[in-house]
Each structure stands twice: as structure tokens, then as C-alpha cells.
Amino acid sequence: MEILAYKRVGTGKKSIIFLHELFGDCTNYDSIIPFLDKENFSCYFVDLRGYGLSKNILGIYNLDEAVKDVINLISHLKIESYNLVAHSMSTMIAQHISSKDNRAKQLILITPISYKGVKSTQKAKENLLSQMRKDSKKIEEIVEQSSIRYNQTWKNYRINLALNCSILEARLGYMNMYLNINFEEDNKIDINIPIKILTGKYDFPVFSKNEVAKYFQKFNNVEIIEVEESGHYPMIECPVFFASKIESWYDF
């Protein structure tokens, strides 16, 4: 059984598992590390197969595999209860983990998508995957659109990370996961733990607070906060606030 690689910060009894986005890895959270309470918390920054510290762990890069991998890692670490933090693409994975693993006590979702994935036509899905496969500057285009407020140094950093933090097959696999247009009919889940959500005021409209609220209206215990000075990366753009909020939400 493969065990995902991770970076641990802190030695406390309160455990937090962090999952990354499509165009980044666990280093996305590096900016918050100086501001974490390392005495009371143990933070595990996990890389999925094909990403970062797990770049050499190959797989099929789909939802079922990712869910099993994270649950297996938590069992391997002998963690009895935890909060699960996930960003963008991995919020879909996290929602399915929480429906299967009763050790998860709270979901903290950053700029999330629905557990059903992202609705898309077959043509649009195939076009996007084709552009990503051919490396036709699609990553650069996405970074440019999401970084209007920032300088070229930031854009270069994000582009370089997106291209080098993972292998192409992993990016395509997880992108295909959340673009699966048949997902809604095939998978229905129940989440019976609190869901805390951070959105960014300057993020893409699909990640806006109002749009995100629609994705989660079926669940009962949901709190959504819009970060006033953030786009898609509140952990990088507002690291002190982010670290403080994650810790303050730990209430068991």
C-alpha cells in the first residue's frame, strides 16, 4: 500500500490535515507556517499522487484513489480525530472523505467546488483537457486572469509552480475528475459535520461567495466567510488571517 508523502508542522494534540489545489502542492501553505500554533496543533500538509513530495507515487489520479489514499494516510499516522482543510480542486475530494471517515470532525473548504464536480459540456471538457495536455499556454492564461491585482513576479511564480509541482498525468487526471459531467447522477453524499468555507473577494466569479453558497445549500451546518483582500489563494495572500481562522475554527 502506497502512503502519501507529507510535511508535518507542530507537535500538538489537535490534528489538521491540509490538501492542495490543482496547480500547486503543499508548498502553497508555506506562508502560514510562521503563524501556526505549533504547541497545540499538529498540521499535516499532504501531497496527492503525482504532486510535490508524492511526485514519484504514480496512480490513476481519480476521486476514489485520492479518497482512499488520504484515509489510509490518516490511519497510518494513527490520528483519531482531525479537521480537514482543502483548497479548490481538493475540496471535492475532502467532501467525499468526510462522508466516509468518521474521524473527520470538521471541513474547512477554501475557494471550493461542489462534491458533484464542475458542470461542463462534453465539448468544453474535451477542449480544456486537450489544451492542458498540449501545454498550449492554458496555465499561463488562467494565472493571468486570476492575478490582475499582482505583479509579474507573482505570475511567474504561480506559472512555474503549476508546471513543475506535479506531473502532467496527475493534473489531467484530477481535472478530468471534477469536469466529469455524469458525476451528479452517480454520486450523492451526506456530510454531517460542520462545514466552514473561505472565499476570496477577488476570485473568479464561479468561486464567489454567492455562487459557493448555492453549492452547499443542501447541507445544514455551513458558515461562509469572504476574505476581503484575497483572490484564489487566501493562504498566500492573507497568511496571518488564514492561520488564525483555521485554528479558531478548531472547536472539539
UniProtKB/TrEMBL annotation:
Sorted UniProt keywords: Hydrolase
Pfam name, any one: Hydrolase_4
InterPro entries in alphabetical order: AB_hydrolase_fold (IPR029058), AB_hydrolase_sf (IPR050266), Hydrolase_4 (IPR022742)
Presence of the UniProt keyword Hydrolase in the record: yes
GO molecular function: hydrolase activity
Keyword Hydrolase appears in the UniProt entry: yes
Name of the protein in question: Alpha/beta hydrolase
Species for this entry: Aliarcobacter vitoriensis
